[in-house]
Structure formats: structure tokens, C-alpha cells
Amino acid sequence: MVEHVKGSRLKRMARFATIAARTTKDVVQAKAMQKLAGHDEGQVASALKPTASRMVEVLGEMKGAATKLGQFIALADQDTFPDEAKKVLNRLLHQTPQRMSPEDARAVVVRELGQEPEALFSAWEDEPFASASMGQVHRATLPDGREVVVKLQFPGVDAAIEHDIRNAGIMFKGMSLAGGILDTREYFDEVAATLRRELDYTEEIAQLKAYRDALAPWPDLVVPGVVEALCTSRLLVLDRLDGPTMLEFAEDPETPPEARFRVAAQLVAAIWGPFLRQGLIHADPHPGNYIVLPDGRLGVLDFGATKQLTPDFAVAYWEIVTASVRGERADYLGIFDRIDFSFPDDRAATRVWLDELVTIVERPLRQDFYDWATCQITPDCRKQVSTAPVLALQVRGPVESLMFYRAAVGAAGDFRMLKAAGNFREVLRGVLETAQTHMAPEVADALAAQGADVRF
């Protein structure tokens, strides 16, 4: 079988470097023209449209870690590109440009299950209806009439990811030798471990089951069933959840505001519910991983990047979030000290800087009505970081915080994309009530041991 994901380690490194350099150059030039020549947003958008198109094509073709990087940029850093350029970049959120041929897809099925699709399914669609960074998805029907989807891993994507990890590892190793604030090797190791885990679909099944259990108190959130007899480490068969993805739902101009708010509220429960209940986080809130079902429920997909965090970390955020819902400010510095954050020596300056950052981040919980369509949290956080860049680099969270903040940043991108507006403080209050009622013993014990104030 021909590998679908091509490129030696050196070639992939060169392509990464080239696209990064060209993109940076284009963005800097476009922003300079806007400032110096008085170009409006439309002119800047036109200038950056080829840049976004080139990024989509290159990162989409490279697959693996490269495509995941492009998807995260499109979702989390939406303010870098003007609206028209973002539309092009958002193609990576819909699906990747490159797919396997029908013949190659069939070959994957035969390699993994030993038979042609027609021998295993009463119906099989040769054309995939979705593709992502590591594989593509086909519709099929089991002999008993059960409608399923079949997720096939791209041949060669495992080697490509290893190449990308090793390439990036060289840079992080060099930074770690410098020590101090540049030593981010532990974060790199966490990301690398997550990427490798996502390649193993048997591990994803275990994480899917854990997340389904964690979501049990929220019946309007649905996790698909698994046909385990037909699953391997590189092929996954799941119950089909029919409906638009959250991205398609958000981009439909006919979607009413109240429906946008409903889905956003469900997403709050999907991300924060399992975390508050038992410390389990879904660290890949890509809008293609959520399906808006016809009955109003929200389907949740893709569990390769879930992460079990420690009870102490969950307790820290119980304190932070409940204080915010009460209209108070938690002692962030003290709480973060307790869960092994590192801070600069100047505690007074750190507290002032951190307090302003928290004020920005907590905006949706400090108002009776918050409109994510006009949200300025990301650019304002960027401005706050720029006021003390060295101090910002010295504020270092524990390794487990990386996946948590990836989830939080991604979810904020989803809310902006949905243009959701409403009382998010009350939404979170409802999630807190349910999580508290069904709290895992480990988290409850940690709360009691800490004597934490978690009134809301």
C-alpha cells in the first residue's frame, strides 16, 4: 500500500520552516501597510487571502501534527487574520484538502480487517464524508441495519508525526539547554505523548468510554456507541450521529440566536462538566468534533486527546470558578502556588499583572449578558501579555495544565465562531450544580481536604 502521508523528516522540516517564514512575512507586511498606508480591513484581507490559502494547502497536505497546528491556528487565533482571509483558513476546520482514493481506503479496510468492505458491511460509501489530520471517515451500514461511520487512519501518518515530533524536538532541546524561561521541554513532551496516543484507536475507545461515563449526568450530550468487534488500532467503527457539525451549524445564516446560545451552553457542559465532576478534560474542542442532532442534543466525538487531570487541579478551578460566579475574585496566586505554578520573584508585580489578565478572561462570568460575536478577550489578553513579556514567560503552569488550557482556548474559539450571546454565568452555575451532585469521590475528597470555599 502506498503511504498517503509522504515526506522524509528533512523535507517535512523544510516545509514547516518555509510556510512559517512566508506566513510571518506576509502578516507583518500586511499589518505594516494597514498602519503606514492607511489600508482598510478589506484591503488587508485581500492581501492575506493567498497567505491563508497557501497555509491551508501545505498544512492540509502534510497531515498529522502539521494539520493539527493549522486547525488550532484557525480556531484559537482568529484575530490574526481579517474576516475574508479567515474564511479561507477555516477550510482546515471543515476538512483537510487531501484525501485517500477509494482504492487506498479499501486497502486499509482489507489490511486491518482481512476482508473487503462489502463482506463486512451491507452498504459502504467509497467517498469519505469527512477527513481530518490523521484519517478520514466513511459512512457504512452493518448487516443488521445499524448505521455506522468507519474512521480510517492514513497510511504513513504515524511516521510523519514521528518526523514532526523529532524535528520540533531539536528546537525544544536547544531551548532547554538555555535553561530558565526558555526551557519548555516538559510541555513539548506532553504534546508529543498526546499526539502518539491519538494514533492508537484502541486507546481512543477506552477514552471514549470514560468520557461517556463522565457525561452521564448531562442527557442532552451524546457519545456514539462502538462496534468493538470491527475496531483495530488504526480503524474505528462507531454509531453514526447524523446532523450538521457545530461548524456547519454556526456558519448557517439561518441559525437563530437562541439556537446558537443553546449549543454554546451544551458545549460548556461538554467541556467543563466532566472536568468539574472528575477532572477529565476533552482537549480537542475542534468544531468538527460536535454534531448538532435533529432532536436538539449535541453529539461529542474524537476522544484521542482527552486527559485525566489530578483532583488537586480540579479543586483549584472549583475555587476559581465558583468565586467568579459569586462575583468575587479568587486568590489566584495562592491557588496556583498550591498546584505547582512557577512565578517571578517579584510577587507584587505578578499579582497586579495577573489580576488584570484575570479581569479580561472572566468577562463572560461577570455580566448578565455576554456576546461572543464582539468578544475581545484574545486580543486584550495579547495586549496584557505584551505589557510585561518577560514576566508572562516566567508564569509557568504545571504540565497537566497544558491540555486544560488547550481545551479552554479552543472552546472560546468555538463560542466566537457560534456568535453565541446570553447569560453564560447562569449556564456555568447549572453545570456546577450538576457536577457537584454527581462529583467523583476523588474530587470530593480533595475538596474536603483543602477546605475550599466552593459556594455558588
Strand content: 5-15%
> Which stretches are low in confidence, meaning pLDDT under 50 for 5 or more residues running?
none
Structural class: alpha+beta
Helix content class: 55-70%
| Main sheet: strands, sense, barrel | 5 strands, antiparallel
Kindly, what is the distance between the CA atoms of the first and last residues, rounded to a whole number of angstroms? 57 Å
| Total count of helical runs of at least 4 residues | 20
The overall strand count is 12
Shape: globular
| Rg, Å, rounded | 22 Å
Q: Overall mean pLDDT score?
A: 85
Walk me through the structure.
The chain has 456 residues and is an alpha+beta fold. It contains 20 helices and 12 strands. The protein has helices spanning 9-36, 41-62, 64-76, 83-89, 91-94, 102-113, 117-120, 157-178, 185-198, 201-214, 246-251, 257-278, 311-325, 332-338, 347-361, 377-387, 389-394, 401-418, 424-437, 441-450, and strands at 123-124, 130-131, 135-141, 147-153, 221-222, 235-239, 280-282, 290-292, 298-300, 306-308, 370-371, 421-422. Strands 1, 2, 3, 4 and 6 form a 5-stranded antiparallel beta sheet that branches. Strands 5-9-8 form a 3-stranded mixed beta sheet. Helix 2 runs parallel beside helix 4 (83-89) and helix 12 runs parallel beside helix 19 (424-437). The longest helix is centred in the N-terminal third of the chain and has 28 residues, at 9-36.
